[in-house]
Amino acid sequence: MNIRFENVNKRFGRTTALDRLTLEAEAGELMVLLGPSGCGKSTSLRLVAGLEAVSEGDIYIGERRVNNVPAQDRDVAMVFQNYALYPHMTVAQNIGYPLLVRKKAKEEIAREVRRVAEQLEIDALLERRPRQLSGGQQQRVALARAIIRHPVAFLMDEPLSNLDANLRLQMRGELKRLQRELGTTMLYVTHDHTEAMTLAHRIALLREGKLQQVGTPMELYRHPANQFVAGFLSTPAMNFLSGAVQGSAFRFSGGAIPLAAEQVKAAAGVEAVVLGFRAQAASLTAPLQPGTFRGNVYVTEEMGSESFVVLTCGECKITVGAGADSRAAIGESLGVVVPASGVHLFDAATGKTVISGTGRPVASA
Amino acid sequence: MSGTQSQKRRRVVGHVWTAGKYAFLAAMLLFFLFPLYWLVATALKTQAEMFSVPPVWWPERFALDYFRDILFRSSFGRLAWNSVVVAGGSTLLSVVVGTMGAYSLSRFRLPFGLNRHISFWILSTRMFPPIVSIVPLFLIMRSLDLVDTRLALILAYSVFNLPFVVWMMKGFFDELPRELEESALIDGDTPFGAFRRIILPLVRPGLAATAVFCLIVAWNEFLFALVLTQTEAALTLPVGIANQVTQYEIRWGAMSAAGVVAMIPLFVFALLVQRHLVRGLSYGAVKG
Prior knowledge:
A: 21 strands, B: 74% helix
């Protein structure tokens, strides 16, 4: 079922956790609520679950307005960051609990528990207690408990953040498959943008209680609505240079970057401009080539399959991708090439995107 | 060479230290167990042995007369039953009410920092000596026509034990992550169902520890029982035992025998819940 926020405000005392959030996750969609800590993403989830009440606005699950529906009657399932397994119950009892409280027959509970346990490959663990399980196994038990009763929606609150790196990648894939198989709407909260990019049908990016942008991962990546979205979805962090558009180039303290005609046109009338580009979009060449600006190698970071070179140019420090076998040496002077297609221009006053690449200007959310 | 010597010295110091520790423990044990030994011994002595100088450490023959007297020829049974009813009733009442209060204080966010203020207010009722409240309490009980009833003691002890129960249990509840109930609610359980099926089983060790303390306090309480009861209808063991000190004589033998018998139920109970008791008291000390 679809989940809809309509002008939802949530305040805790004097702090505003959510500010006029309007957002809809469609039926069967996996929507990731992404943002730094304190952005209101977990709060949104708890509002849908019924663990918190909205200050203003409405929340709908399907066509039902659930503002005043208690948590136990909303028929959603939630997986918590710490899994919240019941420590005094066996795995089987944990998984069967949602059916137990619905007063289902013993045989039916046992049958269903076995079914989901097999589906998640934890059927050998049914008689154990949560503390006897590894983190990954606990995670599966929490998932099993969520899927056993076919809820109208799944709510995931950073479900993978307590797992070690390898297991996280593995579970990420399984979670995605599981959601696609069940076709159940899922709201998924995380602060990890790679998790968001890989899992989501659509991402809703929040900051300080305000929705920044909603869209598919590639939409957000290619056409961020503002500087914050662009920066949040980049690894390593996006390079931002402050300056102004003069003639057909962007000029800043360390030099100039040539722009395309569309970019110059779009930036007309914007006094102070921030130019952003991702490390992967730029490349290095010999110094003093036309269309490049000069940087001095500050440090290099080899990652095996790729490497990054950090350079200083004037007062700024930038990171540029350099392929697997970069031979840049610390102190060396190099030319930096930033193709117009990899350039994002932002209005320094508002932070809003002026133009991304040479493509269409994006309206902000 | 000097290395092995200093090693040897360290070992000797270690032994001395260990011996010292055990000597200290033995002294403490002696200190605490001697009154107990003396109580049991006195109960088994004859009148002559009790007052002989030098003292008789080990009774010549075990005189069970006093035990026979108090068990079969006195109102001891009646008083013991009163004690059981009063201690059991007040423990049950204070634990049930106090646990629910503690859960509310632990989980529900009240405005104006009321959680803190109410908790402190509850604790503050334990800050004055109980004797201060005894006259008003007596007047209240009299106007309710409850003087010399077991109910009066049950109510009085429950009120007295409530702050303790609330503070103990609040600590145990605070240890449990909120997500447990939140998860239970989302799984479709009612708030009370989540409390009964999830939270209560998890605080059982704490509950046991708290109940034992309530029971001990109620079982041994003397002052309220002295003032609020008059006849065998409600007299409890501590007062009954003290009544062996009469105008004409002090019945040491009967007192000691009654004291020994009165100790037994608590002793047995404490043994039964010992496992829970230790777990309850060290609960939360180590995050598991």
